[in-house]
Amino acid sequence: MKRKEFKIPTQTDPVFIIAELSANHNNNFDLAVKTIEAMAESGADAVKIQTYTADSLTLDVDNEFFGPRKDGLWKGKRPFEIFQEGSLPYEWQPKLKTIAENLGLVFFSSPFDLEGVEFLERVGVELYKVASPEINDVPLIRKISKTGKPMILSTGMADEEDIRLAIETIQNTGKNEFAILKCTSQYPAKFSDANLKTIPDMIERFQCTVGVSDHSEGYLVPTVAVSLGAKIVEKHFILDRSLGGIDSAFSMEQKDFAIMVKSVRDAEQALGHVEYKVSSEDKLRRRSLFVVNDIEAGELFTEKNIRSIRPGHGLEPSLYDKVIGKKANTKLQKGTPLSLDLLN
Fold it and tell me: What pTM was estimated for this model as a whole?
């Protein structure tokens, strides 16, 4: 299958749908392959992975900063342990790229350190994503920008100043094409925290393509986001939640992902384009002026012998006042559509 060529989508392009593998490989290469195959079957445009080691993100220390989580999805686990469990082996990534591209998918990654960017350059990815917690990592953003490749920035942990700084870093470094994603960095995220009205504001405020990275249940958020102008949708993908894993609770199974894709595509169709035209067929379904009682030649048109009714084969009702008081130049039967040549 021919691989899709990637470019940052504009408002006239189809929505770009990303299936996030994240940690849902469970350190099993065959499972990772099967998951990517299912992504393609479900209608995704791309598979995104994460390129890191535990050392890329945290320290193997047990103190108040790096000790076990006290609550939430990963309660009782130290960050180092979480990232050890979730990391995708580097030696798999070139192989998975080939598999994904043979399936017609764009394959790309979120790197979490400078070495990860250098590795992904050797792998040959054609775009990059900056994850929400890395939005303030100017050296990382600068390193990615120097590749000259398109970038997608998630803004789940950013305020306006953070977003502007990241964009300025890109524009001052490599002038890469870029997009930003509205994201709620909760796992899973609540609908009440989605704040999707931010999307049209982001489009106007930052003058760029905007998408959504969603961790909520179901496909409501992506569908609504598209209706508000989102041109990129990202969602975590898992073959089966019963497989477990650190991201399973907020990942979407294949069947539901396929439903989401259809919902997004249906929303695109429904959005259509700005149009105020009326078809000729619809004009004939509207009201127009008809003779409603027989009229003799020379008889005046009155409110008793003409009326505005359906269908639209007669004169426009806007001409009613001009017709009243005019004379018929021929005999007219009830049910005759009025036309200017019948007026004297």
Answer: 0.88
